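Notes from the 1:1 (GR / supervisor)

We went over the backlog. Supervisor wanted to see one worked example end to end before approving the batch request, so GR pasted a single chain during the call. The sequence is below; no edits were made to it. Supervisor asked that the structure be written out right there so they could see what the output format looks like.
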Amino acid sequence: MFRAPAMRDAIAIETLTSTTIRQIAERLASARTFEEFVYRESEMDALFTLADIAITTRRESEHPLLARGISLDTLGRLRQLVFEAHDATHDNDVIAACALLERAAQLID
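Structure output shown during the call:
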């Protein structure tokens, strides 16, 4: 039986999709404890890494997660928005962080 992860738990971030980005934003908006904020930051770190991998892979061949023709420029902007959202979270500006994550998700909708 599937058990949804508790908000206090970190979740595995395995795909770079608008759905994944929005799930992290939703979890961030619901975070209340220091531990939950640390987990959300680690999830954003994973998104950043996936974007970085997609950029590197895209230079060499088509990235399997982003085979829809998303440009390197768009991937770079997505990575930057996730980076800024991470920093906003660290600065206790959850509203700005969620808005930045939404902008990132819209880039790959």
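Supervisor's comment: DSSP finds four helices and no strands in the chain.
Batch request approved.
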